[in-house]
Protein 1
Amino acid sequence: MALSGLDIFKLLPKTNCGECGVPTCMAFAMKLAQKKAELSECPYASEDAKTTLGAASEPPIRLVKIGSGNTAEVGNETVMFRHEKTFFHQTGIAIELCTSEGKNKLLEKIKEIENYGVERVGETLTADLYLITHDSSDPEDCLSAIKLAKEHSTKGIILNCRDDKTLREGLEIIKDDRPAILLQKELSDKDIELAVSFDGSLILTGHSYDDIDGQAKKAKAAGLNSLILNLESDNLGRQIQDNTILRRSALKKNIKSFGYPLFSYVRAENNFDLLARASALICKYASIIALPEYDKALLYSLFTLRQNIFTDPQKPIQVDPKVYPVGDPTPESPIFITTNFSLSYFMVSGEIENSGISAHLVVADAEGQSVLTAWAAGKFNGETIAKFIKDIKLEEQVKTRKIVIPGFVSMISGDLEENLPGWEVIVGCQEASDIPSFVKNVQLT
Ligand code: SF4
């Protein structure tokens, strides 16, 4: 039976030290009861508390790891909507390698995938996993594909092989790399034995809630916790509904057999549909999506979407507030200012670079908020900017006494000039993409 907040409170240290992020042990107990926190966030929880709370403090959705180099971690989620807290582990993107493609083509494909990454707001976005599907008649094709992936990549591998003997030989090759096995038929004792022997995760495929429930219970009874659920359906609407019901059942109804990450193989007749389906599944609870092909444009869109969904909404991605050189600025170079919201910084610095000039980019501390949000919150105005410029001793670093502010906050120009005697404030363009034409038409120094 689930423990109440009061039951949990009785097991906590009751010192109200606040180190768990809330001011009192009672508040923390309430969060634990609502599954919005984990006992490990209290550094002073006694062994007694850990034992007694046991399953009550377990994450409602298990964490599963695949791979030993670039390990893909999925699951461990505690909320339905990211604004309730945050999503902890982004959807893993797996790309399928079919053994019928042949060694040379597979090698070329693996190399291309390994070399493809997108730099965005300071992060490098890449695919996470390979799904190796044995669809040829020769077992050697399968073993060769596994060897290629292992040799040329550190990504985790999911094996999809219906032939038991070949599967076992394939697992032997990646036995130290925490493999995952995609099961296409009902879980058998042999599958359980393989997962235990090779320290692997099992992706259980079912066609109904009862089917998935039964298989998950059987695996759990055999001591397996690294499980992933694949409730199959060709209908996207049905898939989203299923994923939502499974997530809700795990989080809100505490149904343990549904408390595992979710897998979806994305099928579509064309790339447009593939993108639409994969996007919907990233938004609605797929912990891993497997794509049948490698396509840069498709991946670029999915990476961007995934990064937006899995960024902690309570912690904007920030860069350090300071002066950043763009190009090779001298003390006479122009000065731009923006906030320390990561996306603003990368867009503005990128467009200054595109314009071909060198400049000083002053990134003011606005707690990671974008320009207009920070202005509305009183964190980016004449007074705060002038104070920041004085604090970082900008006047000692540059000779220029002109500063370009974002066009969206033109209303602060007078205020800033009052707070920065001797400086001329230039109102810049509203969109970063207009910076190259702006610098051509305005005298900035
Ligand atoms: S960290 Fe532990 S002891 Fe401190 S307030 Fe939180 S629950 Fe209480």
Protein 2
Amino acid sequence: MDIAIVGAGQAGVSLATRLRNLKHDGTISLIGEEPVAPYQRPPLSKHYLLGDKSFDSLLLKPASFYDEQSIALLTGRQVTFIDRDNQRLEFSDGTTHGYDALALTTGSIARTLPAEVGGALEGVFTLRSAKDVDEISASLFATGERPDGKQGRVLIVGGGYLGLEAAASARKRGLQVTLIEMGTRILQRVAGAETSAFFRKLHHDHGVDLREGVGLDHLIGTDRVRGAKLSDGSELEVDVVIVAIGVGANAALAENAGLVVENGIVVDAQCRTSDTSIFAAGDCTSFPHGDSRIRLESVGNAIAQAEASAGTITGRDDPYVAKPWFWSDQYDAKLQIAGLNIGYDRVVTRNGTSSSPSFWYFRGDALLAVDAVNDGRAYMAGKKLIEMGRTADPDAIADPGHDLKLLLRP
Ligand SMILES: Cc1cc2nc3c(=O)[nH]c(=O)nc-3n(C[C@H](O)[C@H](O)[C@H](O)COP(=O)(O)OP(=O)(O)OC[C@H]3O[C@@H](n4cnc5c(N)ncnc54)[C@H](O)[C@@H]3O)c2cc1C
């Protein structure tokens, strides 16, 4: 059986690797449009943006891996159409590639600002690929200084994890940073007010001008961005803009091929799309979770779902059950998140006034998720409890003297 995987990112590599581990002995083609070998994205907004890490250190596998595993890695090749009737992929250069089974691991696409508000001006960047970061670094971002020796000014649009990580990296680079979030608080979509408050203070303490409830009206400049007018009427001078306003599933290829797409490529619990010979995994999918469907943008999901789809392709029938986890690094704060807080009605705080607090989300008596800052023990305890389907006594959690290990006792 010839298996083609479109999208040579985290999920694509995990899927190809797992297929070989499961003794698939047919061909595997791993196809990516980026001109480089597959790499990790999380360091892009952290150490790579800071200039602390080389591109080579981001590679998901050493160069020799693909040959050793007989995985044909095709980079710099964009798939433009899936001819389902003939089980054939079409590339932008007009060539084609047949398949018996196809896996789509096309990831996400960063939302951009429309050109009408200045999104096409020079100096305006998104942060999704290594190329994006190389371009940001080639701007004054790397030195923190403008050509006239003055401190560079960066505007970050969007107060989610990506925007906040970019803000932390920019401050470490010596830039003056303004971050605007049009929602009433940063991290509104993903975290409770307690977690937002912790990170708001952290960024204030590091000198970020953080403005919540303020959106972008438009960017100012003719060719290059030089300023921004905000929704509250204020104006800022700006040298670099990083747009971190979320991502959408990269599902156009699937949609054009007539696959069912609703907030991502719709897959069942076995990672099958609406075409029995096409599978999908990672950021580009929406999959069953309890009574509803979700789409996750995380490394943990990309790996686990890709491995599950390799199982399905090689004849297993195990359903994929997501065990969500995520992390974010900002300054010296390492946030680790276990579970999903969707539908929470109560947050219990542990060590709230320290630099290592954790925030525990409940719905009724059920423990849903934990946000733990600089506290690996709280993260691990929360993760284990959630994965075992157990809960914990909120009073015990709130008591910093209570040993979390006791919560895990049968
Ligand atoms: C800056 C940044 C920081 C992040 N930080 C974290 C973090 O701290 N923790 C965490 O858990 N997650 C983090 N994430 C999210 C995480 O990186 C993604 O969830 C993960 O990479 C998803 O893997 P994927 O394989 O689904 O998609 P991707 O890794 O995006 O790979 C998809 C690949 O498919 C290629 N492709 C798409 N269409 C085609 C086509 N038509 N033809 C050929 N190739 C195509 C794309 O170019 C891309 O290389 C971060 C993401 C970014 C961008």
